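Checked the freezer inventory, then went back to the computational side. Two predictions to log before the end of the day. The first one is the construct we discussed on Monday; recording sequence and tokens without edits.
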Amino acid sequence: MIPNTISHLYPQAHNHGARHRYRFVVMVLGRSGLGKSTFVDSLFAHNFQREPIDKNATSPYIRTVTQDMEERGVNLKLTVVDTPGYGDFIDNTGAHNCAKAYVQSQFKRFLSQEMAPKRGRVSDTRVHACIYFISPNARGLSPLDIATMTSLQDMVNIIPVIGKSDTLTVDERHSLKLAISRDLQRAGIRPFDPYEFVLPADDSDDDSADESQSVAANEANGGEKEDYKQHIPFAITSSRDKYELNGRTVRGRKYEWGMVEMDNESHSDFIHLRNLILRQHMNDLITTTNYIHYEKYRELVLSKALGKSTISTPAPTPQKRAMVRSGNE
């Protein structure tokens, strides 16, 4: 049985009192050939129609695709951002600047809307998550991996993954995960942790007691919270193909020696990554983007404009909190 996709968002919306509509922007970043497009199509069970890659490009560039999706009463306006050419040139110095500039440009766009004298409906195109793909042939993080994640981690939620992990043996996969985890710690790179952040409280909001706790206090579907740290980096296998296996329909990759099932946790961490993004913590990715990453940018820009080193950021209003919850455009 193929799992449902965006209908997993329903408990999050219900628990937060939101309309069942989301606006979500995800960036996939990594060298070509690591299965980024296949992963996105697999995660959302949709074959996105992307523009052809510009083979004449001499540097990384931004490519986006936006799709309105609906499933079981849940509506999702999804934008997928990728950077063709990233890491594919002889000299990759500054290859991450394209992604960084895009994230900052969306912050700037959102701030301009907030500051407009006559503000209409705010369109939120800020990047809520960056899924960073690491080669299965690596022995750890490359200098480019470290430079990229270090430069982005204070402005977007970073989720590191090992692409095409089905090319590794079980022992190889375990060793690579340990090596990458070690390198992440040594480099001071902090992957997204839904249980790390605390939201500012607002006494005027009836939900303030709940909101002032961990961002991930909402444990969607009523299950126990999952310790995602043990899976970082997520070693994933993705596939658009479906097969019949022992009376079941499965997604995966078929080899002469057997089948690698994408949704089988003994074969891949895909199911845990799907749970993180769709089943439990999309609200948290959106909320931390707004309250943590965007607020840092907003404070820096306004402090420079006012000629001050720091400014005080007012507590979020109930209206603003509702906007974030509902994925308001």
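The second is the one RB wanted added to the comparison set:
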Amino acid sequence: MKQNLTLILMNEAVREGWREWMEKVRKVLPQTDAERPVTWIAAERLARENGRMVRLVELLREHRPVLSYRVKEEAGLLILVAYHRHGSSADFLLETAEAYFRERDCGGFLFLCRMQASINAYDEYPHLNVLCNRLAGLLFRFRRERASEYRKGIPPMFGKADLQEVEKYLPHLRGCSFREEIALALPKVKNVEELARECAMSVNTLGRRFKEELNTTPHRWLTEQRKAHVTSLLADTDMPLQEIADVCGFATPSYLWDFCKKHLKATPAEIREIARCARTV
């Protein structure tokens, strides 16, 4: 069970002789609402105590290197650190962003995006530009890796609505391209009609966009994506055929078998055997 972080920090402050400032922090944290930037004013003032803040960040690294935005006091500490114009605080926030991304914590990642945008709305905190750039870089990495993750059956960290929200807080981030939009929709759809609905366009419009931007048809594209997904699950996992059929949108394993035979020129068992032999070479 985790010790109470505020109590740990308070004990350290008493021992080192900066109890008065830490007592103010302890009182401010419960009043700092992560959803209401207007409540962050007291944290902004406390962050001006550079020496105290540098030591606080050192203690956070020691006792709680990744703060949880879901815990009110820890979210308040993240806000306090963000107001501190110092390299050590910027580094702490960068490491937090990396940890949230690594742990696929979408909520934590979105919180960091909102927080830095609110605090640095008028470019008064240039150290947060580094955080903004890192968040954008991680989003670009997500976009690059999304297709390969889908083929491995890994659910996306961000949905379309999440990316739209992120772009409000990272203005230099490009909007989703058509390729990215259909890639995000892919895990939820089984046919062209569902893909068109997910992309909020008619079947005819979807077909025209595919022709213009990908020089193919939606049906052919879906088939190619399904082929890649099926091949990856058969070759890289021990999932039963029934589960693979369910994940890939086939009513029964028999339909999966027919699909493999028609489009991959091999049965599921043969695909697995080919993959097994390739690994032993």
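For RB: The mean pLDDT is 90. The two ends are 47 Å apart (CA to CA). Let me know if you want it refolded.
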